[in-house]
Amino acid sequence: MDTPPKPAVIRQRKDFLAANHGLRVARPAFVLLANPNYGQGTRFGITVTKRIGNAVVRNRIKRRFRELLWEALPAEGLPDHDHILIGRDAALTRDFATMRKELGYALKSAREGKGDPPRRPRRPGGKGRK
């Protein structure tokens, strides 16, 4: 049985930034960004910020996301799109099978063009009120 090739990995910052202009689907463990890449194939990237935890925690989440994406993208991913997963706190403790179902739902929503409403713009000058 032939296994489909693994999707390419996004490594350049400009591609991550461009994905912010695409479709956004939020789930409890992650946020999926899907953005057309105009003929570069199905690609993926993973972002987990330092707010989530130390390096050990972030790397564990990234490994879980990588496995999810390798499994889901060949069959369910959008062709010629970049897929970015942004980790949330729940990604570490959430059941893997549950995250797989949520990723399938998020990819289905993205295929149908049903993203979440745009986020409100951040206030200039910092993280928030003091």
Please, could you describe this protein's structure?
It is an enzyme of class 3 (hydrolase). The protein has 3 helices and 5 strands; from the N terminus they run βαβββαβα. It starts with 7 loop residues before the first strand and ends in a 19-residue tail after the last helix. The protein has a single domain, classed as Ribosomal Protein S5, domain 2 (2-Layer Sandwich), CATH 3.30.230.10. With 130 residues, the protein is of the alpha/beta class. It is 35% helix and 19% strand. α2 packs across α3. The protein is globular, with a radius of gyration of 15 Å.
Give structural attributes:
alpha/beta; RNase_P; Ribosomal Protein S5, domain 2; 130 residues; five-stranded mixed β-sheet; RNA-binding
Shape descriptor reads: globular
Structural class: alpha/beta
**Proportion of helical residues:** 25-40%
Give the number of helices: 3
Largest sheet: 5 strands, mixed
Number of domains: 1
Largest beta sheet: strand ordering: 1-4-5-3-2
Residue ranges: pLDDT <50 for 5 or more in a row?
Answer: none
- Tell me the strand percentage band: 15-25%
> How many β-strand stretches?
5
Secondary-structure element string: EHEEEHEH
Q: Which radius of gyration do the C-alpha atoms yield?
A: 15 Å
CATH top level label:
Alpha Beta
Per the CATH scheme, the topology name is Ribosomal Protein S5, domain 2
